[in-house]
Amino acid sequence: MRTDVLRSACRGAFALLIFFFGAETRAQLIVTEIMQDPHSADATWEWVEVYNPGSTAVDLAGYLVDRVGDAPIGVTPAPVGIRTAVIVDDEILSNTTVVPAGGVAVLYDGPALGYDAGRFRNAWPSMPAAAALIGVESWPTLTNQPAAPGLSIGFWADEAAYRSDVADLGEPADPDYRVAGTGAAAFEVSYRADGFWPLANNAASIAYDGVGSPAEGASWTLSVAGGAGATRSTASFLSEPINGPDRGSPGVAPAHGQAPRSSLQITEVMYDPASRTSGEWEWVEVYNPGDPLDFSEEPYWIDDDDFGPIPGPNVTAGVVGTGEVAVLYNTDDATLGQMRAAWQTDDGPEINFIPVRNWPELANGGDLVGLWRTPLGYLDGQAGGELQYATSGVIYDNTGDWPRPNDADSIAIADLGADRSLPTSWTRASDTNSPAPASYVAAEVLAPGGLADNLGMDVGSPGVVPETLLQTLPGDYNNDGRVDAADFTVWRDGLGVFYDEGGYATWVENYGESLGEANAATVPEPATAVLANLALATAAVAAGRRRAGNHRA
């Protein structure tokens, strides 16, 4: 729980931090493409692409780029990495250093190309004009196929951060200083020649697919001309060494990682508990109508849109089976025992509590809370305050038709198929029209010393989704209790719970049914005109799905 006053004060303090220390940089940039093995067999044409999904630009001036395991860049003169101005043949040249918000930059070996960005663009004529080209001094030559544990490249904001990752790995009489890690780096990337990583082939870059973790080889692919924006470079003869026919997509932002969407749905949110102990007693309930989900194998992010992104997924343990409900809770401030003491009843079903680190303390006066499966989707959504790439979420408020906070109640979705952006789709747990008749008052939980920790005044139904919401009909793809034309739209556009091409036949067969009529002796015949009109679009829809290979089950 965050009061509006506290929220405003924190935001003001955060603005001052940005004013004094500059725009946020750590954990904001992601390396999305690496050309480690160009055809020319020379480091001159190596490059690294970085993507900035944040809402603020990042200036890399003063950054140092180096490889883990190498001897550090010299102390005298001071190490040089990325500079705004350089001297080439007694001429002062400017060097771009800023990665724009939501934009892409390509880092290249500055001295090797004479800091001539035009030469790079001549070699890659399909590179978007808006993409920044940033020359790097002391370029760390990239290894083509590094053996395990692989090659790690760090990007440090200044010399102090860089030096903190340098260690003496030798003996007292024979010191051996090396870059020992990337703990103080603003961001880093690692790759290797095993563990599902694509192998370098003396021509193609490797590109992050935007879906899985950038640390996993399966999330990277070898660039193929014509695929995912990749093109073939043009030979450059301006000076030796020349550029060969490489393949890549420098400067092209990656897809935002729409992995096969999960059907995990947020069904209840406790953002305003009675106990004013930060976010300790907040929780979010989720329902899984799809395949079993193991967060240890498929981690998620749950967050709001305040104070910058968290460093990694924070839902990393627990399992939600098909048709089951789980409650995500703040494990940094509340123990599993405390949550059970507050909400588990003797006669109720066992609640599946799932721990969450870096809990997003939710505001009473309105906030966003979302679930994301992919890092790029999360970073875009968190920075932009929107849910476009979220698996599920809600942007709630305390104005208009939204349920008013009352220091006690959760808010619950009125219908699994309802539009979560509409205030009328949500009710307070204690309201007479709440879809959660199972709502109850939490028990008091005492802190050490006998003081009340949870006041025992909260009202909700964590871990319990009413049967009226869970009952489904074949063909009822928006889960509103009836099979009608709206379900065709859901099936056609791939919304809600996903179905394959056979779902159309299921919808036709059950058109007109509702939960109250599901057991009737006769099934109403589909309205011929409606079906005829909708069927005209079905062949094209199915054909498009076959071409895309996007079968959803």
TrEMBL record:
<feature type="domain" description="LTD">
    <location>
        <begin position="255"/>
        <end position="415"/>
    </location>
</feature>
<feature type="region of interest" description="Disordered">
    <location>
        <begin position="239"/>
        <end position="261"/>
    </location>
</feature>
<dbReference type="Pfam" id="PF00932">
    <property type="entry name" value="LTD"/>
</dbReference>
<protein>
    <recommendedName>
        <fullName>LTD domain-containing protein</fullName>
    </recommendedName>
</protein>
<dbReference type="InterPro" id="IPR018247">
    <property type="entry name" value="EF_Hand_1_Ca_BS"/>
</dbReference>
<feature type="domain" description="LTD">
    <location>
        <begin position="20"/>
        <end position="193"/>
    </location>
</feature>
<dbReference type="InterPro" id="IPR001322">
    <property type="entry name" value="Lamin_tail_dom"/>
</dbReference>
